[in-house]
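## retry 2 of 3
previous attempt timed out at serialization; input unchanged, resubmitting
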Amino acid sequence: MLDKVGDKDLPVAENASNSNADDVISILAPQDSDAPVSKRSIWVSLLLVLLQALLMVAILFGSFMLAKRMIDDKPEPRKRRAFKTVYTIETVTAKAADYQPVFTAYGQTVAARSVDLRSLVSGEIVNVSPKLRSGARISKGDVLIEIDEFNYRGALAEAKANLLEAEAKVIENEAQISLEMSKLASVREQLDLATADLARVESLKQRQTATQQQVEVRKLVVSQRKQAVRLSEDTINVQKARIEQLKASLLRLQWRVDQANRNLVSTKLEAPFSGIVRSSTAEMGRAITANDVVVSMYEADTMEVKFTLTDAQYGRLQTDDGGLIGRKLEIIWSVGGKDWKYPAMIDRVGAEITSSRGGVELFGVVGDSTDAVAIRPGAFVEVRVPDRLFSNTIMVPDTAIYGTDTVYTAVEGKLVENQVEIVAYEGEKALISTGLKTGDEVLTTRITEVSAGLNVRREGEAPQRPAAAQRGGGGENGENGNNGNTNRSAAPRGRPTPEEIAKVAKSNNLTLDQFRALSRDKRRELIGTFRAGGADAAKGQ
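## retry succeeded, writing output
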């Protein structure tokens, strides 16, 4: 009947699903007729799961034990004796003496005498000297340029003509004065005659032999003669004043002549001294005006060096017994891969303190050097200046200075810190006045972690061996001294192989399990004894 229903009413898939469901229900249902068989299969499945879990635990446990045994059998690395760090250093022996260091300054050469030549007159340049080139040497009195002198010759001729005209007027006025002087003498003579005639007529009138009219006529003549004398005298005075005016104009006209003559001479520009042409703007046909700069030049035979000293250096030299002015210098000019040296001497101190550069500016006169090239202005030079004399001081390399005032000395393999006073430097060396004494071994090697008490040894010295090693002890077989060291060096080292472990166990009448059950220290002792015995046997053979 079921088959019939399944065939007619339900699809095949539904029948399959329903059958699977029925199987599950039949397994789980207790009242099913197949219940005993299902319970046995459940227990079998549980047993299999349990066995699998036990097997996994056994495998893990075995792996753990194997790893533990391998770790236990691994020999510990040999402990090495810890040695303190010892630095190999270089030292210098301190020695007190009298030193006069030479410190180095840097400066620039400048011309001691330089000038910009300007044209004193204006006009067209008609001639230029062939020497007038930048860097060329010229001699004193050389004509550098010539300006067209036509106008200046005309001005000179006109000035001379005016002067001659004024001189002629002076001569003319002097002649007029001479004429007036002679005329004055004649008028005075006429006055004397008229005065005498008046006196004679007045005496006649008193004798009643002359009339009053005659007396008055004589007085009128005397008055006319006096007026003529005064007029002549005034004329002479006027002529003399005129002559003074003409003489004054003569001075002015003479100056005009001198000025015209000077302008004519100034049409030729000459070198005031022997030197080197620095620059020139003169060109043929160029029109220039008065006060135009035509040539710039400097004196070649006199050169100076300008350099700066620090306040400390300037103070030491200023207070030195030798003084500052006149102190000898040495100038070094590096050119062409060679150092040229020139003698020099401090000549003067700068007018102002160069606060911007933090020092005092000095000028020195550069002397002649027969075997050196001619130095030119603007050269950057090295100036070596002798410092003052320092008595009873110690000179050390500047690498020995730590900080600003610390020096280390080596005493019995240890560094000792010393506070010192540095009074001067000379190149890469420092002068120390206090803090060191003769015979001190001064550290010159730079050590980053330098400190007092640091272990050091001087270069070339043998390193100090530890006390235990010197006595032959320390470590395994230490009591045997050198023999123990030999045995350790001859015996094999490292992790033992399984074959070696088997040999160690057999030599001590132990099984492998018994050997592995021993403590780690005991196993190492047996392995070390076995190895040492093998080395002794090999040595005996």
